[in-house]
């Protein structure tokens, strides 16, 4: 057993090195050429090591799905089969999709928080004696409205239809709170109601909604942990089998019965993860 491990060790090291090199190669972009041009310029400042490492980390974070490749290469070398490589190739787009969905969710939450802060800032400006248009210009001039900032601030600056601009901006995911802000603005303009009072109530409602979402997520953290543990159990079983000298990868990848078990287990694992994820996500929407 030790002899077999010593034989495979160089190939394992080579596989890991090749996978990491491939991931770094994928993470490269045209910024390398720009960096070389900056170094060629005598007047350019040399980047610090911390800045260079931050740039590398940023590129690696943007291509985290390619970390599946070295894992697949390692399993392919250990199991002496191309099936892990095929599985790794299929895993890359799935992991990329999951990462993008998670990034979109985080972006929507940050945008909703920015809308909440915008309401509070406008309320503060109104109570300080500013008119509504000037209050919105002062509070929304720091990128709080994102891509809709130009249209909304232009309407506020030149006397346009601010409620309509806010309503249109609310159609973007994360900016839903601007619909309530637009309604308050319309009522204040048409009916003479206090805009600061209405916006303060909207801010309170948005903060309460965020707190409820955070509490629900904290309560579902245990369920998500259970899903992760169940997903990792097959890997634990493979590790225990290898520790006992059973060579599970060879059995699964090089025998008809093992291949049948591998296909059936993979399908059941995918179905279980899909089912458990749907249950937990349904709980998040309650």
From TrEMBL:
Signal peptide coordinates: none
Membrane topology annotation: Multi-pass membrane protein
Coiled-coil segments: none
Compartment(s) of residence: Cell membrane
Keyword Zinc set for record: no
Coarse class of the protein's main subcellular location: membrane
UniProt keyword terms in alphabetical order: Cell membrane, Membrane, Transmembrane, Transmembrane helix
Type II secretion system protein GspF domain segment(s): 124-239
Membrane-spanning segments: 71-95, 220-245, 257-276
Descriptive protein name: Type II secretion system F family protein
Biological classification of the source: Bacteria, Bacillati, Actinomycetota, Actinomycetes, Kitasatosporales
